[in-house]
Amino acid sequence: MKDLIHRAAGDLVRSKNAVALTGAGISVESGIPPFRGKGGLWERFDPMEYAHIDAFMKNPAKVWDVLIKEMKEVIDNARPNDAHKGLARLENLGILKTIITQNVYGMNQMAGNTDVIEFHGNFAWQRCMECNNRCETTKIDIGQIPPRCECGGIYRPECIFFGEMIPPQYLRVSEMAASACDIMLVIGTSATVQPAASIPLIAKQAGAKVIEINFERTPLSIESSDYIIMGKAGEILKTLTTEIERLFNIGSSPD
Ligand code: OAD
Predict the structure, then answer these.
(1) Burial code of 90-117, b = ≥16 C-beta within 10 A, e = fewer?
(2) Residue to probe by mutation, ligand 1, list 26, 35, 118, 171, most atoms within 8 Å of CB
(3) CA distance 97 to 20
(4) Nearest-angstrom CA–CA distance, 107 and 87
(5) Phi, psi of 115 (to 5 degrees)
(6) What is the mean pLDDT of each run of 10 residues along the chain (255 residues)?
(7) What pLDDT does residue 255 have?
(8) CA of 217 to the centre of ligand 1 (A)
């Protein structure tokens, strides 16, 4: 693993325009559960019953009571981990230009990244379905389910439910970032949900190197990753940024 991390550090130091695509796996070390696999949300909840827009419109109280309430508890308590901090450091060093994230908890911004495309929207804010008033999720009173705005309308998270379109502007800027980058870091995603899963393929077809960081191999590993660094995202990003700082000669003591 160490050899691959050193290889990635060299690749990133030489790159001119690195972009990252992240998924739920990057936040697992912050205590946020993934969707698929062991301990995943979809192991406990049927996404068609709790995460589809039709299910929400039919019975918002049920979806709030089960899924959204739990997600709110997570966002009220979770903090960025070493993987998020590592990506913030890479932006700070001028290496990482953009993050395209499928995650909705705002951890990258909390860690300090400024160019973040929230492909599946944002759970940090709720929007009234009647008057469009916005309220921070942490400030929503869940004493009443579903929570309502002063106008009486029901709040919904600003993230995408299954059955909803990716906002075209997010799709467009993500595709543009993917086709312009020279390295795409793909971190902690099962790469199974479209159209996000196509983003690394766009990068690859445009000539970028695709470097995956994940616990396990994914369909992407076979299709288009140049190499995969297997392990925990937080540990890998920490070692990777330390190695990049060494290559940049940052933090070394004067002779
Ligand atoms: P998944 O839950 O499908 O996949 C998480 C990936 O992270 C898996 O490939 C794991 O092996 C990997 N993983 C887990 N822990 C890790 C760790 N500590 N370090 C590195 N890798 C780790 O999550 P996504 O691919 O993000 O969409 O899911 C995509 C979309 O499916 C989500 O955005 C969501 C969901 O349904 C919507 O809600 C619209």
Answers:
(1) bbeeebbbbbbbbbbbbbbbbbebeebb
(2) 35
(3) 8
(4) 11
(5) -110, 90
(6) 94 97 96 90 91 96 91 88 98 97 95 97 94 94 93 96 93 97 98 95 97 95 93 98 92 51
(7) 45
(8) 12
Pocket probe for ligand 1: among 21, 26, 27, 28, the residue whose CB has the most ligand atoms within 8 Å is 28
Distances (CA, A) of 159 to 18, 26, 53, 150, 187: 26, 18, 11, 21, 20
Dihedrals phi, psi of 118, to nearest 5 degrees? -90, 90
Contacts of 201 (CB under 8 A, 6+ apart): 220, 223, 224
Q: CA 104, CA 41: separation in Å to the nearest integer?
A: 14
Which pLDDT value is given to residue 37? 86
* pTM assigned to the model: 0.94
DSSP code for 142: T
Core vs surface per residue 169-206: b (16+ CB within 10 A) or e: ebbebbbebbeebbbbbbbbbbbeeeebbebbbbbbee
